[in-house]
Design a protein that fits this description.
The chain is α/β, with parallel strands linked by helices and 567 residues long. Helix 1 packs antiparallel against helix 4 and helix 21 packs antiparallel against helix 22. The chain is globular. It starts with a strand and ends with a helix. The model has no long low-confidence stretch (mean pLDDT 89).
Amino acid sequence: MTERRFEGIGVTPLSGVGNVVWYAPDADLDDPPDPSEVDADAETARFEEARDAAREELERERERTAERVGEDEAAVFDAHVQFLDDPQITDGVEEQIAEGLPAEHAVQRTFDRFVEQFEGMEGRMAERADDLRDVRDRLVRVLSGGERVNLAELEKGSVVFAERLTPSDTAQLDPERVAGFVTVTGGRTSHAAIFARSLALPAVVGVGEELNEVEDGAEVVVDGTDGEVIVDPAEETRKAAAEEEEAEIRSEPVATADGVEIEVAGNVGTAADLGPAADRGADGIGLFRTEFLFLDRQSPPDEEEQYETYVDALETFSDGRVVVRTLDVGGDKPIDYLDLPDEENPFLGERGIRRSLGPDSDLFETQLRALLRAAASDAGGDLAVMLPLVSTVEEVTAARERLELFADDLEREGIDYALPEFGVMVETPAAAFMAEDLTSQVDFFSIGTNDLAQYVMAAERGNERVAELGDYTQPAVLRAIRATVEAAEGTDVWVGMCGEMAGDPDLTELLLGLGLDELSMSAVTVPQVKQAVTETDTGDARKLAEKALSAGTKDEVRRVLTENTKS
């Protein structure tokens, strides 16, 4: 039988072999009865009971997901609870009931209206439609007494195929049983993709409608590295994927084949993510996303809570470095208790350092004080602080002056402190262009390729319609990275990368050739990247980078990388 290949978006550098299990939860309902037969008061009471039951389920799933996967991923269930309590939704359901619909039909009709609205938006807002579907299907199931398909009890070697997977679906998947999953829709930032990376599951998303041609039970290879789904694989294809070995976990730092030591760190969102990063061999933390300390609560964390969190990180990596990004909100990261503006294009609006130096200056002060204190703790490890979304030298100067001012305050108060390493994220074209001027202000640069690609290419990173433009192997993005590294050459400034590009082992040689000193990524890919570092000769890597930088198109860049792999 001839192999059939389908292309999508690979979201984990892993491969799996197994048999297709199509997952299609059925939320369809029979036609509603005549409105005259509906008792509105009774249906409203049923709706309230269903909300309570759904809330209890969500709380259990959140706790289970936090334990199995991590706090970052579990936080999605907090958003689902908010949908249960959203007055636009609850009022809409009650209005439909008042017009004569049973509760389950009222829920479905109301939620479908909001799903359609979100699907008409772009980027990550469109992905919120999956969250709404998840809550809708849960309520309908509770109201109709339906049975939930238990994805946790699939046969070993199953590969889940689905139109889409909601957070609740993906959180059930057991890596010991499931060989991978594939979806018709979705992108790199979808919840399914995020869960796949956290669970170390081979996964390909966004294959398209042609995936429906694949029969239930067919044998497939899921290639999460190249983004391919191979149906009826040839024996050599199947064996190659089945025998793919997990890279060795190395707890010690690694060096290139010619002896250049490269720091390979992990990206984390909460203290719960620290242990898994260490377990995967991360040398330290290259990106601590502190906004997760501020989300899903009614008030911001105080200085003491933040201090203890940063000290925990330093204790976990007592022989390494912990790079903490100051609060980065705005854009796609709203916080309920902050007065965030309603902006037409929030990604180009008041986010990151712009808010820290403006309306959130009090939060900035609290955070910097906690960081200064943590830097002086006896937890071990080296603390570094970096600023998000920097565009001007003035922003960096102002932030550094505040750090030193708060240090003076602590000294007057008799509180121990130490000045941490101070750096900026390079994620705007302005920061890349001004990198040479910034070297006198900072100790390091950390390149955030997710946003850098978005801003260099003017292509919103969550918008599947412009995904090709926003690819970080676009020549313009590579040249922005190289310009940043060149600005630091001959200075004491080191250059790292904490975007998704850093976690792609197929690009490790290119990145080292471009001159990166540190790579930070999702913990799941740390072993593969460490292995790729040890197999790289920096002289060859520089030649590869020169060829890639001379390319005029993304296809040419990819051709250079492919030819290098074959040689």
